[in-house]
Amino acid sequence: MTGEDSTVKETGGGVADYNSPYYVHPSDTPRQMQVNELLSDKNYADWAQEMENFLFAKNKFGFVDGSIKKPEKMSKEYAQWMRVDAMIKGWLTTAMEKDIRGSVKYAYTAAEIWSDLQERFGKESAPRAYELKNKIINTHQDGSSVSAYYTRLRSIWDEIQSVFPMPRCTCNGCTCEVGKRLVEHQEKEKLYEFLMGLDGDFSVIKTQILANKPTPSLSTAYHLVAEDERQKQISEDKRPNAESAAFKAYIPKNRDNRNVKGKGKQEEAKHCTHCDRDGHLKEGCFKRIGYPDWWPGKVKEERPSPKASCVERGSRVINGLTEEQYEEFLERFKDKTNDEGSERVANMTGRTNGKTNWVVDSGATEHTTYLGDILENKRKNNHELPITIPNGDAIPVKGKGDYTLPGGVKIKGILHVPDFTCNLLSVSRLAKDLQCSVTFYPDFFVMQGLRSGNLIGAGKCEGGLYRLKMFVEERKAMSVSISRWHERLGHTSQERLGKVDFLKGVSLNLRNKICDSCSKAKHTRSSFNLSEIKTKECFELLHCDVWGKYRFQSLSGANFFLTIVDDYSRHVWVFLIKRKSDASTCLVNFCKMIKTQFDKVVKRIRCDNGGEFTSNAMVDFYANQGILLETTCPHTSQQNGVVERKHQHLLDTARALRFGAKLPKRFWGECVLTAAYIINRLPSKTIGDKTPYEKLYNQRAEYDHMRVFGCLVYFWSIDTKGDKFEERGKPGIFLGYPKGIKGYKIYDIGSKKMVVSRDVKFHEDNFVFPQRQDQDIDDMFTVSIDNHDKQQINVEVEPIEKGNEPSYGPENNSQNEQRNNGHASEAQHVVEPGCGPEGSLENNQHMGEDSGPINQEADEGNGPVDCHEDFFRDESTERPKRNKAPPKHLNDFVVNLPPSVDHTHPASTQDASTVYPSAHYISYNNFSSNHKRFLAAITTSVEPKNFKQAMQDPKWVEAMQREIQALEQNNTWTIESLPEGKRAIDSKWVYKIKYKPNGEVERYKARLVARGFTQVEGEDFHDTFAPVAKLVTVRTLLAVATKRNWFIRQLDVNNAFLHGDLDEEVFMKIPQGFLKENEDRVCRLRKSLYGLKQASRNWYQKFTNALIGLGFTTSRADHSLFLYNNNGVFLAILIYVDDVILVGNDMKKIEEIKDCLHSQFSIKDLGHLKYFLGIEVANTSQGLVLSQRKYTLDILEDSGMEGCRPSSFPIEQNLKLDTREDDPVVDAGCYRRLIGRLLYLQATRPDVAFSVNCLSQFVSDPRQSHMDAVYRVLQYLKATPGQGILLPKGDGENLIAYSDSDWLGCPMTRRSRTGYVVFLGGAPISWKTKKQSVVSRSSAEAEYRAMATTVSELIWLRWLLGELGVPQSSPTMMFCDNQAARSIANNPVFHERTKHVEMDCYFVRERIESKEVCTVPIESRLQLADLFTKGLGAARLRFLLDKLGVVDLHAPA
């Protein structure tokens, strides 16, 4: 815009008024860019702020906010106003993205544009506010500078203020001060957010800021943190390197007189009013905010010890130790004395003493001791050189020997130096001899193995010397956390843990920790007072009682258990019994055992008045043995309080074990037995803090073999049957310690039997059974996993065996406690629950102890475990499912309650938390590495769905450019003006990725497709017919090629429809992305283009002429099939638009044909057939496997059913679908899309043909029941996504068929259903399910119509096979299970029941007489066509699919 054209509002003197809003500078143009970023749907707040600033600076904001009104047309200012408004409109639209610009380009004024943008983008956005708040929470310093971190926060705060501005006080004069308090509240909130995101290095300054009263402002806090950051940077610059610092002693200097370099006059001028010193200000005074650790002049009293208790959560100062174990180190080794008051020993000059007090010294080169009597293998050596101590004295060495520290650590080569009164351990010798690391901390040191990380020893810093303190019991206590010992010892109390020998003195902080199992199991009323022990020896008095009857049987079939407690030792024995009367036999056998094993007799038995103890037989037994019976008074169980309290203790512990392991209630017996075993090994106050085991056997109990009850284990399998490739480890559940066997009791998950084995690996962090909230534990186990016998297929390179067992084992790599593996060759004992002679002690005496310690350690790990459904389910605890129905008063209303999980709109975390992930139902282990790469490529590659997505990827931009170049080189169109009366059709881009056989991308193919559906017949097209290859032809051709070992290649035509000439006059708009500005011309098509009505016919004619010229002939059975047969060379070409399959027996001729086609049509050779029309082709040792795995997964993903629960059958048996008016209506578009995609899935999935055919008849008016049935089909596909058909190499080339019908199968029309399947040498090549066109009056009539349909298909297939060189010389067998239909086919006499199907009778009978077809009887249970006429259950469906040749190469093993 020139100066002459500038709009100027002149003042009275004719001079331009530059302050007028109508003034426009000569340099202003409408296409000026006035903001930093174009307006998008995400940055309106920033954009509007920049645009407002610009318009204010130009004095033009009144035009957009409406304050400068539009003048009347007759006004002198009208033209000026319109010109300025047009200028502003240009500024606004230039600063927008193209999509937004298109939505406002027809606005009349700039104010309309501004108002529209405010309405669309300026309103409060809850999602954006949530996003910003979440961004605030996740913004941390992460090592960046304080300034950069604060800048990031400030930008987010400003954007939040623009999205949600702070409310302002509206009262006049504002006496309420609400606005002021809101500002202060917001300022504090920003301060806390700023401090929370700082790194851990600023923990001290954060504490100082928060401790100040009043709380400092945000700017003050930022200043303090920035000053702290600068001080640290200064100290780091001045800090000496680590190597030199290790040998440097710091000499304090006079602070006032030292010469500080690098400080200018400005810093020297700073004066602190707090400490009255120069060089800093009050805000950064260390006397006020605290000295940092790096401050060299900091005195010891002011510097806190850098203990690990100050380390933030999640960090580990000592590798291999948990936080809890590290806290125990602090408690054990914290410095409780004042170092200043202790005796100072400089460099070990011999002033310390103590018998076995070993000092760990990094300055010593050899181990020394002055105590010769403690050395082992002592050797006198007069030739040893003397040692030199720091003061320069040389001390003679008298000998050398070894010493074993408590705990078994042996130190070799210790020098005996009597004149050096100190026991020294050299750090360098320790690290080399023991292969360990020695790490020193301010209050202690630790010694850990280099490889295992296990603790070897530790010590405390006393008087400035590190002394070795930690040995056997301490190492055992510290190697495993206190919480883990709490679980191992049956969730025992803190008091009892503290009395275990090796845990004595260990700091136990269980009171501050919540144990869910203990809280659930041990919450009781106050206990009774304990009775005193008045007996003098074991078995002087026994307390007995029976617990039960429990409503759930144990694994051994028991409903009761007998408890016997020895009064003197408080040792407890537990016996699981089926009936109360069995307690008498157990008690008698127990007394005999006491006599034999302990050579003692029972003197007294105290019990209640139960008949099992006071029967005549038992009274006689007491009299014969001289036992005195003591019974309680009626209803006075307190007199038998010892065993009653023991019952409570047993049940508390057993419940805690069950809850911790998440076991069903049928495992209660093993919980009680293990509880008794554990209780006998826990100290008790009643017996002087000793264990019952120690009181009874006079030896301490062992704990090393104990593990967490109910955890996942793997035990050695002996069921290999000599097979070297069978499983060596089997998964199980640890259920306690058997009596008399040095092993562990394991519940075998696979065989559901109890076994005993010592070759066990433990995973104490993992439990087999899942856990769910707000649900009873026994109702949780309803996981459904369908495991069918799969046909073993050898794929590509080598076979992979598949079984029916689910996969068990760790999957997550988390930090676990280290264990050593124990191995032995003992075979495990299989224990059948409830076996053995009834009433014998061996059958009933499941004692809670074993005969000796089990010296075995195991590995630990973690990971989820999958099990069979019937293993999880507890049959005795299942509750019947009640039918749920909406209330009757809501029958007249439409009520749609939201489901618990909406799979159609999954949450962001749903994929990670789904119970049924897709990975459980699909595997790639059966394929070679090349085929895996190919499957990964077609699965992970994403094809753009529209032009906008394609423009984001340069590869697709290049593909579109190549397509346009090919179109122009082929003279596909000419650019012309659109004639009057003509209309131009539109076009769109379609994108496809072509792959090589090894999975590499062959090319990115972009197709320009004309929207031919807008063409008018007779005007711009006439004939549209073009043959398309039938899927039956595809399967037949591949089956024949597989059986005859022909070569199979796949070809692709670069631009198929470009080669068809176009006779009609068709105009098309210029393709998207190539339209130039101000271009109004269109493309007149000279040749065919994708999408045109006549395009496929033109292309087919062109390609046919080319093949005929090469010697091919068109098949009469399928016009898309072309055959070449000359001098023993046979080739077949099958075309489907631009995808071509070429098979033949002569590779040289195949190459010749490819070269000829390439010269005419630019053919691409894609190699071996791998992926054709969405069908995946896998070459196995048995033949070809066709599947639609990716297509199935895409359907599940697009429908939101990836996380659905799988089903073992696609449709319910006897399900009758109809169109009921009271059934709720569903989205018809969604239903039709699903049915349309499922229809094509039948190409390789005969198992869903019947279900999809039934559901497809409701596409015009789908209801909720129909949609539910579709979801059932999707659930079935979820369980078998990779299932397909096998085209075997063998089994001959004979054609056979199965025909069946379902009489009156349709509940709405009462029409019957036809179903058939045809095999070529065992390969399923054709199948169909269809409702008959008329109602059949009898089942024979329905069967005969089905036979007629099958015969028609057989005649066509025989014709096709004859052309493929597979003639059928013998009649084709057609199996039918209806005797009447077979009789009609073979009997020329018609009667009343058949005269209305006379035409079908003649048709079938002629084919039978001509020996083309013959009917064969078959049993109904073997009728394979049943699959296509009715819904089947899981077992029947699996049976028929196996017979049909359906396999699943992707089924997980």
TrEMBL record:
Gene3D superfamilies: Ribonuclease H-like superfamily/Ribonuclease H (3.30.420.10). Residues 866-880 have a biased composition (Basic and acidic residues). Residues 533-700 form the Integrase catalytic domain. Residues 798-890 are annotated as: Disordered. Residues 810-823 have a biased composition (Polar residues). It is an enzyme of class 2 (transferase). GO terms for biological process: DNA integration. Keywords: Aspartyl protease, Hydrolase, Nucleotidyltransferase, Protease, RNA-directed DNA polymerase, Transferase. CDD domains: RNase_HI_RT_Ty1 (cd09272). GO terms for molecular function: aspartic-type endopeptidase activity; nucleic acid binding; RNA-directed DNA polymerase activity. The keyword Nucleus does not apply. Its EC number is 2.7.7.49. InterPro entries: Copia-like_N (IPR029472), DNA/RNA_pol_sf (IPR043502), GAG-pre-integrase_dom (IPR025724), Integrase_cat-core (IPR001584), PolX-like_BBD (IPR054722), RNaseH-like_sf (IPR012337), RNaseH_sf (IPR036397), RVT_2 (IPR013103). This is RNA-directed DNA polymerase. It comes from Helianthus annuus.
